[in-house]
């Protein structure tokens, strides 16, 4: 036989194909030509088989062009130590030993505000002596009010003017000079409130530094129960040994939870709000000093263990009367 054969009709070529192909069932189309019922049955069966074949081809190609990726992921939860949390009630104390100097500072602030803005304020706005700490049994201290300490008049608030872009701008600042009134340093602020707060804080810290070191402020301050109504960690109530108390001259009573980071009670095993630290705080400010801090509420700082909390630079404020959620990630 030749390599290429030409058939007289399509029927002859179809019969040759059905008799020599390896496709199952095609020979039945030729052998059963005398029975049309069998021929029709095998024809339908072959067409259905080809339909299934091409349907499988379509599925495979669609899956191939989708570029599927099989990813095996294993989640491993490693316990971590919960960080240290410091909270302050923003309610600094006025001590009777320096009350005279604090009253004098309030009067100076009143005079400065009147001089700068022409607003008449009452000294009672700045000074509230509803509750003072009485320190008894300290011999040799004497009365600080009669000591040689005096508020520096060389550190005063001024209204300063400077030229910017050909226009005259007025700003508020303060001047700090040496004991003789010379070698002065000037600091200006675009906001008068910022200048007054910084000026008041400087004098306040100068006054508070006159308190004797031997005074244990913690013995005279309120207990943690007066500030923290409820404390829970991971659903368990906090213990008395879980916090450390200290006093901040500006932010008042401060408590640091998990300061050492060695107690297994503060191990964090699961993420989420129910497994963290939950506090209900009382933010009552009986001795609030408006010119020392314009914030009402609670000061919070999240820091590492055995770290001194610098609340002025890294702490943030939480306003009272609302629920606040803080999320952290190491």
TrEMBL record:
Main location: membrane
Gene3D superfamilies: Acid-sensing ion channels like domains
A single MF term (Gene Ontology): ligand-gated sodium channel activity
Transmembrane regions listed in the UniProt entry: 44-67
Bilayer topology: Multi-pass membrane protein
Source organism, top-level taxon: Eukaryota
Location within or outside the cell: Membrane
Pfam name, any one: ASC
InterPro entries the record matches: ENaC
Single GO cellular component term: sodium channel complex
The UniProt record lists the keyword Transmembrane: yes
Keyword presence, DNA-binding: no
Keywords from the named record: Ion channel, Ion transport, Membrane, Sodium, Sodium channel, Sodium transport, Transmembrane, Transmembrane helix, Transport
Entry similarity comment: Belongs to the amiloride-sensitive sodium channel (TC 1.A.6) family.
Name of this protein: SCNNA protein
Taxonomic source organism: Neodrepanis coruscans (wattled asity)
Lineage: Eukaryota, Metazoa, Chordata, Craniata, Vertebrata
């Amino acid at each position: 036989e030749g390599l290429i054969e030409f058939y007289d009709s399509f029927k002859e070529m179809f019969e040759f194909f059905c008799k020599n192909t390896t496709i199952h069932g095609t020979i039945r189309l030729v052998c059963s030509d005398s029975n049309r019922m069998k021929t029709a049955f095998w024809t339908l069966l072959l067409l259905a088989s080809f339909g299934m074949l091409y349907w499988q081809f379509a599925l495979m190609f669609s899956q191939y062009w989708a570029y599927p990726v099989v990813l095996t992921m294993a989640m491993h939860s490693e316990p971590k130590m919960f960080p240290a949390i410091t909270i302050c009630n923003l309610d600094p104390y006025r001590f009777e030993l320096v009350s005279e100097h604090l009253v004098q500072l309030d009067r100076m602030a009143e005079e400065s505000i009147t001089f700068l803005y022409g607003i008449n304020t009452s000294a009672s706005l700045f000074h509230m002596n509803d509750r003072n700490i009485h320190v008894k049994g300290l011999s040799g201290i004497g009365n600080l009010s009669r000591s040689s300490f005096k508020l520096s008049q060389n550190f005063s608030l001024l209204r300063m003017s400077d030229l910017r872009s050909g226009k005259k701008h007025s700003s508020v600042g303060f001047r700090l000079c040496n004991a003789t009134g010379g070698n002065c340093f000037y600091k200006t602020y675009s906001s008068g409130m910022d200048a007054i707060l910084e000026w008041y804080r400087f004098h306040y810290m100068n006054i508070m530094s006159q308190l004797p070191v031997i005074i244990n402020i913690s013995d005279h301050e309120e207990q943690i129960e007066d500030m923290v109504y409820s404390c829970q960690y991971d659903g368990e109530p906090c213990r008395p040994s879980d916090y450390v108390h200290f006093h901040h001259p500006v932010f008042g009573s401060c408590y640091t939870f998990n300061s050492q980071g060695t107690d297994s009670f503060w191990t964090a095993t699961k993420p989420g709000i129910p497994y963290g630290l939950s506090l209900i705080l009382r933010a009552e400010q009986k001795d609030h000093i408006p010119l020392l801090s314009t914030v009402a509420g609670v000061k919070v700082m999240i820091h590492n263990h055995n770290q001194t909390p610098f609340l002025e630079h890294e702490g943030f404020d939480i306003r009272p009367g609302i629920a606040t959620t803080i999320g952290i990630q190491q």
